[in-house]
Each structure stands twice: as structure tokens, then as C-alpha cells.
Write a structure and sequence with these properties.
Blueprint lengths: L6 H19 L2 H4 L3 E2 H5 L5 H4 L8 H21 L2 H22 L2 E2 L3 H17 L11 H15 L4 H15 L5 H5 L1
Antiparallel strand pairs: 1-2
């Protein structure tokens, strides 16, 4: 466990807040970085990532996504590692954006990237045996993973992103095989 300042979460939070704030002052800014499937397929590949910098669906999306980033960004940065924070945010975010090409071609927000942090943190909780939580530590994993699978079947872009977060979490916390340690 590290007690250092969660600077990665703060930087991503600030960049998203600044871009979203600019979009609120000038709504045309929201169109430039948001996910736009036809434009992305025509070569505007930066939209796979820049879409995470604008919350295009109003104040409810801003409140939910900023809260999720603050909570799960902090938790992952504090209890896991910053490298895995980046891997989960990017991996799940890109997975959600690829699903978005098919299921929701236009939009913006970083909720799909935050889903990666949720999945990673949930897997960290499962691995925690010394926290005194007992079986309760599995609750978050069961709820979030179940929710992710339901969303996949409903063709919601958050489903594949959540599932990817769990897969990356499983990778992050996989124990090396005994033979590999002795080689």
C-alpha cells in the first residue's frame, strides 16, 4: 500500500475537467474529440482516446464519471500500481470504444475507461486475503462482473469495457507457475 499523492488520477481528472469545462462554454468543442464511428473509420483514430476527455451527455454523466474516476482512480493508484492503472484505463477504454463503433457510434465520456479501473480494483479485492473481509471481498466482483455481462448482452459499450477490466485484473494478479519461478 502506498500513501503517496494519486497524481495520475489527479492529472486525468484535471484534463477531463478542463476539456469538459471548455465544451460547456463552447458546445462545438464536444464534437471535435468525441467518438464518431464514421470519422474514426475514415482515419481519425485519435478519437478512440480523446473521447474520454469530454462528457457529452450533461451534468448527470459529469457527476457519475468524475465521481467514479476520483474513487476508483484513487483506489487503484493507492493499492495496485500506476502501470496497471494505465493498462486498465487504456485497455478497457479502447475495448469500449471499439464496441462503440458497432453499438453507439457517436458519443463521449470516460466511463468505459473507468470501467477498467473498476474491474482491476475488484480483482485486487478478490486477491486480498489479509483484509479481514472474508467472503464479502467477492461481492464487488460478482456484482460488477455480472453487470458487465448483462451490459454485453444488451449491446451497451460499458459491458465489454468492464469485462476487459476484469481480464486485465486477472492478468495483473495471476500467480506465476512454480516451474517458471525455478527456471
Amino acid at each position: 500500500m502506498r500513501a503517496s499523492l494519486p497524481w495520475l488520477t489527479i492529472i486525468v481528472f484535471a484534463a477531463t475537467a478542463i476539456t469538459t469545462g471548455a465544451m460547456l462554454l463552447n458546445p462545438a468543442i464536444g464534437d471535435a474529440p468525441e467518438r464518431n464511428g464514421p470519422l474514426m473509420l475514415e482515419g481519425q483514430v485519435w478519437r478512440f482516446v480523446t473521447t474520454w476527455l469530454v462528457e457529452t451527455d450533461g451534468w448527470q454523466q459529469i457527476a457519475v464519471n468524475f465521481t467514479g474516476l476520483a474513487i476508483f482512480g484513487f483506489l487503484v493508484e493507492r493499492f495496485v500500481r500506476r502501470a496497471w492503472w494505465v493498462v486498465a484505463y487504456l485497455g478497457a477504454g479502447l475495448t469500449g470504444e471499439i464496441a462503440g463503433l458497432f453499438w453507439q457510434p457517436v458519443g463521449g465520456g470516460n466511463s468505459v475507461a473507468i470501467a477498467g479501473l473498476i474491474g482491476l480494483f475488484s480483482m485486487w479485492q478478490v486477491r486480498r486475503q489479509d483484509a479481514g473481509l472474508g467472503p464479502v471481498r467477492y461481492l464487488g466482483t460478482a456484482v460488477w462482473l455480472g453487470f458487465g455481462l448483462i451490459l454485453c448482452f444488451r449491446h451497451d459499450i460499458h459491458g465489454p469495457a468492464l469485462v476487459m477490466g476484469f481480464l486485465l485484473g486477472a492478468l495483473a494478479f495471476a500467480k506465476p507457475r512454480a516451474e517458471a519461478r525455478h527456471a
